[in-house]
Amino acid sequence: EFLNQNLSLKLKKEPNLVYDAIILAVDHDHFKNIDASYIKKISSNNPILIDLDQRFNKEYFKKSGIEYWSL
Hints:
This protein is α/β, with parallel strands linked by helices.
């Protein structure tokens, strides 16, 4: 509600576009089970996953053809 009222932004429950990069910046339970197949489903041909919390296994995503960055 705050985002909509103050910034005219509306959050989506599910992505509906194709993304070149996905940034995971929060540690919500909703994101704990994200896997390579989901990233590929919503991404372009050469997806980049940026994991700010270093929550996921870098090698798992790299083996799946997803470029993985973390801080």
